[in-house]
Amino acid sequence: MKFLLVFDFDHTIVDENSDTWVVKCAPEKKLPNGLRNSYRPGHWTEYMGRVFVYLGDNGIKEDEMRRTMTRIPFTDGMVDLLGFIGENKELFDCIIVSDSNTVFIDWILKAADFRTVFDEVFTNPAAFSSTGYLTVQSFHAHHCAKCPKNLCKRKVLQEFLDKQLERGVSYTQIVYIGDGGNDLCPVMFLKKDDTAMPRQGYTLEKKISQLAQDLSPVECSVMVWSSATEIMSYLKVLMKE
What are the binding positions for Mg(2+) in this chain (predicted)? Predict the structure, then answer.
């Protein structure tokens, strides 16, 4: 009996968007209008590439970025939840699927000593260049019309499950914890024994309830959360079953 926990990162594990939080490093803690207005829907990763160039051009170094990023607050109850999962790893496999990047997620999890809670992190690859600039690439290419062009979370989840099956690992239940519009695609892939846990008041919750109103509800059960302690209570129930 093993459960798979799938976490989004921004506004789910941390209570902010890590990509917009990094702007605290910028001169006057803001971006020029021209750069801000250069974002095109579905092309966030390319936009962040330009943000990182701007930070590099302004002499923002890796150390300063790391200091800023490791001050990002965790969502209410999340520290307790991740501690609890870490103590029960024999029951829970745990992955992150996020539109952030490898550098930010690594810094934040390692600083809080949570890196070992997660078996794998699927996010946009990032690295510092020889000139000290942070660079970011798209996670993969895909053909899903619903998702941003750099990341379809359903594809990631499907490929992870296939790989696990090849290793002889299958799951009693998948629990998907997220908040954003790009979490809907993987939630629609979940089966009736699985559970989607959208964060209260965020886009994912609204999209799931809209589907129910349109009489095409998601197949899995849905449990809304506002504090991660509610997620922990649910996992404790699963452990007893």
Answer: 8, 10, 179
3-state secondary structure the chain: CCEEEEECCECCCECCCHHHHHHHHCHHHCCCHHHHCCCCCCCHHHHHHHHHHHHHHCCCCHHHHHHHHCCCCECCCHHHHHHHHHHCCCCEEEEEEEEEEHHHHHHHHHHCCCHHHCCEEEEECEEECCCCCEEECCCCCCCCCCCCCCCCHHHHHHHHHHHHHHCCCCCCEEEEEECCHHHHHHHHHCCCCCEEEEECCCHHHHHHHHHHHCCCCCCCEECCECCHHHHHHHHHHHHHC
Tell whether 63 is in a known binding site: no
The set of catalytic residues is: 8, 10
pLDDT given at position 144: 79
Quick: pLDDT tens for 186-215. Answer: 999 999 999 999 999 999 999 999 988 877
93 labelled as ligand-binding?
A: no
Q: Is 194 annotated as a binding residue?
A: no
* Residue 121 φ then ψ, to 5°: -125, 120
Is 99 annotated for ligand binding?
yes
Global pTM value:
0.94
Structural domains in the chain, sorted by start: 2-18+71-239 (3.40.50.1000)
